[in-house]
Amino acid sequence: MRIAIFVSGSGTNCENIIRYFQHSEDINVALVVSNRPDAYALERAQRLGVPTAIVPKVELNTPEVMLSLLQDYRIGFIVLAGFLPIIPDFLIDAFPRRIVNIHPALLPKYGGKGMWGHHVHEAVKAAGETETGITIHYVTPVCDGGEIIAQFATPLTPDDTAESIAEKVHRLEMAHYPAVLEKLFTAATA
């Protein structure tokens, strides 16, 4: 299974996934794609020997460019790890149930357009939630509306800040995202 990781930011999840599969004979992170040339994730990937590509929004939304790029690297699965642009419908059609995202809350709460990163954690804090977590789900044309693959929760206290919530969520991402992906890829190739 050859996978592409799509990223927009620093790339801690991206690096975690690359390292997790580094010695796998069955799963290969073949490409890291970013919409931002300054995304630190690109440097992390290059340091670990993974090819990278920068795809600005206009190219992301151009079927010939994206499908050709993914075909060149023989990509079978796309993993979103902090990728902010909306995935275009043609990519969802070309990779049915083969694009996976991680969301920093327990969907369906705190999902949808504009709900990413600190925006989610601030909303969770403002609502006085007693728990939050991560949701790993398939990508569909509905933002954060795809079928849920797995969820993991962490308790919150009234003393938690948006920053401490972000740290708790990040620990869940590091602990669970690669293992859930491995089960998914293994099932897809069985």
How are the elements arranged and paired?
Layout: E1 2-7, H1 12-21, E2 28-34, H2 40-47, E3 52-54, H3 57-60, H4 63-72, E4 77-80, H5 89-94, E5 99-103, H6 118-126, E6 131-138, E7 148-155, H7 162-189
Parallel strand pairs: 1-2, 1-4, 2-3, 4-5
Antiparallel strand pairs: 5-6, 6-7
Helix pairs in contact: 1-7, 6-7
Q: Segments where pLDDT lies below 50 for 5+ residues?
A: none
Task: Spell out the helices and strands N to C.
Answer: EHEHEHHEHEHEEH
Instruction: Give the count of helical stretches.
Output: 7
Strand neighbour order, sheet with most strands: 3-2-1-4-5-6-7
| Structural class estimated from helices and strands | alpha/beta
| The CATH C-level class name of the largest domain | Alpha Beta
Estimate the global geometry from the Cα principal axes: globular
CATH superfamily of the largest domain: Formyl transferase, N-terminal domain
**CATH fold call of the largest domain:** Rossmann fold
**Average pLDDT figure:** 96
Rg over alpha carbons:
16 Å
**How many domains make up the coordinates?**
2
Which sheet architecture does the biggest sheet show?
7 strands, mixed
Task: Compute the number of strand runs.
Answer: 7
Name the helicity range: 25-40%
Compute the separation of the termini in Å.
11 Å
The CATH architecture of the largest domain would be: 3-Layer(aba) Sandwich
